[in-house]
């Protein structure tokens, strides 16, 4: 555990079973020095305990754009984690599709060259779609740290939160 502040982490969550454990990642990241702000796809909010996440993070959970002309309620991002990441988000992000707040922020983070760690949660049939593999390759080429190990962590599992945090800290050095 680190007492040193590391920066502002935008933690993005997609609609997949591990979203139900999002509250397990937030305290780990905070104890390690990250100020955590949580983004969710609109569908992911149905998997998450929003009041608990807001209490743990100290920030409102966001899934919608802010009103134009209003001040941002979050501090400026310095790193990103997306876990779990779905097929839909993987392929849209790789294509530069920013049709929701989460994708918009991921596209922006990639353009800013931020350290980004992604942990897909994709079941077998979806993982064999050709767009998934191509999207992972492109995102890796763009510097995204992909943690995807379906042999050891088949969907609905993802790599452990501790491994995600470790890779984030390595990427942010």
Structure description:
The structure is a single chain. By secondary structure, this protein is an alpha/beta fold. It is 38% helix and 16% strand. It contains seven helices and five strands, in the order βαβαβααβααβα. It has a five-stranded parallel beta sheet with strand order 2-1-3-4-5, sandwiched between helices. Strand 1, helix 1 and strand 2 form a beta-alpha-beta unit. The longest helix is centred in the middle third of the chain and has 12 residues. InterPro entries: Flavin_trans-like, Flavoprotein. It holds the Pfam family Flavoprotein. One of its GO terms (molecular function) is catalytic activity. This is Flavoprotein.
